[in-house]
């Protein structure tokens, strides 16, 4: 099925007659239970109007699924739409006339005969034209081109009639549609005279703004990193959320964004250069190192000054001497050693001072404007331990302090300039001072941003947003220093920890020697038992052999020994 082709564009005598608002305002009638864009065509046919929305992901082909039925009160933002016809299959082709009128609603004053004046609404700036299309049988459609309206929105009425019928604009009927029309700048065609002109447009609109944006951002970012001692260290999740938010904003605000970028395409390349500079500053600004703060604590330990602990220790000692009591295990030790470890990121300044670094663009901006959270210690820095691993330094904290580490990051305070201040004199009088300059300067800045952006990009709202963000970042948000205070352990505490580790190593060695000696003793005992058993076996074997030789093999009785002489006496016959 090929689309029907418009046959003519008539703007003759039909346009000479001025249409009234009463003729233009009525809409058509849709059949029962039909969509709002359906109109009857005879007894069995129908007309349908479809429009193509504007958007980043819209398929602009003629048979794409992006085409939608025209809704009541909808604003058509393209300069064309589709008129569909459904008739019986096999029906002959038929010509139809499509009449279109654009207008705006104004007012005029009418003076009555009695001299009273009243105001009524009228149709102004009326534009009227016709299109003739040919529709075949079955499903067929035609593209209806509309006049462009890029600057203002116009009300539009479109109707369909047969070639021999009267004007459907002057004689409102059922086959009419009313809607608003304002052409989107995203649909504006772009033409170039030559390849050289296109190349020049690309250099001026794309390359130079991208280069300027990236250079300015890199230079400013390098200076900011030097003052902030480290980059912003933006988390990956924020990059992902920003990308998702940017895509959603582009889809939802496509019309405004497209209109702005069409008039000022250099904004795209400038934004790309700024983004590249931010990524480079973020990438090369990671020059921090890790530091750990370790605190040992003895939980449930024995305190000799506490009577309750002394009494409990005596009771445990008595239970230990009871043979029926269990010997207990490691969990029954008088104290449990616990540790708390806090890890922070640091950066060194020009004077060597250590400053805590937290991730985030707001904290980075505060540090770039002079705020910092320098490390302040209560104790001796010699308790610092150099570490080979994921952190570079380790500090031992006071084991008796419940909160040895207190940290408040650098931040901003929201302060608006005072318009009126009061001063009390020595006489008790109150003098009122006015400070209008900051407020006037702020208003002028916002106004200048609006005017400049309106001239350069056609969107004063963009300039107003940029100027407002600049005022907030530089004048309203004031940087404030943070604080990182650490209560370090006493000077010789690390020697005590070293002694503890040395004792643990000696205890391990002693345990190893004791285990070796025990194994050796058991081995020697087993060897001695084996030799004794072997000697017993040898003795038993010799006695058996003698008995068998002299006793067991004789037929007579065993000889009887003389108790006095020890000689054997012969047996009686």
What does this entry show, briefly?
With 573 residues, this protein is an alpha+beta fold. It is built from 10 helices and 25 strands.
Topology:
Layout: E1 9-10, H1 21-24, E2 38-41, E3 45-51, E4 68-69, E5 75-76, E6 80-86, E7 94-111, E8 117-135, E9 139-145, E10 154-162, E11 176-181, H2 195-228, H3 236-252, H4 254-263, H5 266-284, E12 289-299, H6 307-321, E13 336-348, E14 354-357, H7 361-368, E15 375-378, E16 384-386, E17 393-396, E18 405-408, E19 411-414, E20 420-424, E21 430-434, H8 437-456, H9 460-476, E22 477-480, E23 483-487, H10 493-552, E24 560-561, E25 568-569
Parallel strand pairs: 5-11, 12-17, 15-23
Antiparallel strand pairs: 1-8, 2-3, 3-4, 3-6, 6-9, 7-8, 7-10, 10-11, 12-13, 13-14, 16-17, 18-23, 19-22, 20-21, 24-25
Helix pairs in contact: 2-5, 2-7, 8-9
Total domain count: 4
User: Could you say which structural class the secondary elements and strand pairing correspond to?
Assistant: alpha+beta
Q: The biggest beta sheet, please?
A: 6 strands, mixed
Which range does the strand content fall in? Answer: 25-35%
- If you average the pLDDT, what whole number results? 79
Question: Based on CA inertia axes, which overall geometry fits?
Answer: elongated
Oligomer category: single chain
Low-confidence parts: 560-573
What is the CA–CA distance across the termini? 149 Å
Radius of gyration: 50 Å
The helicity comes to 25-40%
**In which order are the strands of the major sheet placed?**
1-8-7-10-11-5
How many helix segments?
10
Number of strands: 25
Keywords: Membrane, Transmembrane, Transmembrane helix
Biased composition (Acidic residues): 307-325
Transmembrane segments: 199-221, 233-254, 266-285, 459-477
Region (Disordered): 307-332, 549-573
